[in-house]
# Entry
Amino acid sequence: MRGKFIVLEGLDRSGKSTQVDRLIQRLEQDGPARLQKFPDRTTSIGKMIDAYLQSKTEMDDRAIHLLFSANRWECSKRIREDIAKGITVVADRYAFSGIAFSAAKGLPFDYCLAPDEGLPLPDVVINLSLSPEDAAKRGQYGEEKYETLDMQERTRAQFKLVAREMERRHPGRWKDVDAAGSVEEVGERIRQVVGVEVDTELGQLWM
Ligand code: Z5A
Ligand code: MG
# Structure
């Protein structure tokens, strides 16, 4: 039996990394599971992305968009191979962040979507949604590029369009999960949506 491909998405500080770690620990009780973080900052492309996010280098908006996508493509072979071997892969962000953040900067939505076409299709996308008020309670914005209120608000609006596109192209896979409440409460909500039945074959995104 193949592994599942599970993606966690959501705005800054919605608790993705916290919940991804918890989810992997729980999944490992039933079989092998591993984390795939995006951006994967360890590869040579990932190092360019890291420098950009830390404002150490400047980059054209389209160039950085394509690098984020290239970073997913370079990891996609291993994702497919692991899933075929029965390993469940849990991604901390994926193509949906890629579209939402770049479209929030003003790039055309369809342009943002195109480079990821054909990537492994997640069996389920858990979108952690948090109101601006609850997000603000989780501390100040950090030092990185997109961590401003204005950018986060525009990204929030784009995530809604991404959700609609997913529902149109791959119905039933996008799950909005309320990220307010304790770590345990959010974890329990995720547990309830993650037990999805999967198709025999891993699909292709946007196809
Ligand atoms: N980006 C892009 O533009 N294009 C792309 O294609 C991709 C990404 C893939 C870096 O991402 C940036 O890259 C990101 C989008 C862009 N820019 N922004 N913004 P990243 O994933 O490296 O960012 P991060 O800093 O690791 O993650 P995050 O979004 O900021 O946080 P999170 O993972 O969602 O949350 P967390 O680390 O689990 O928790 C945040 C804090 O809240 C922490 O102190 C926790 O202890 C606390 N927390 C967690 N859960 C709770 C609950 N339930 N209650 C109270 N407090 C909580
Ligand atoms: Mg994180």
Q: What stands out?
A: The first helix runs from residue 16 to 27. The beta strands are 5-10, 33-37, 88-92, 124-129, 174-178. The first strand starts at residue 5 and ends at 10. The chain has one domain: 5-191.
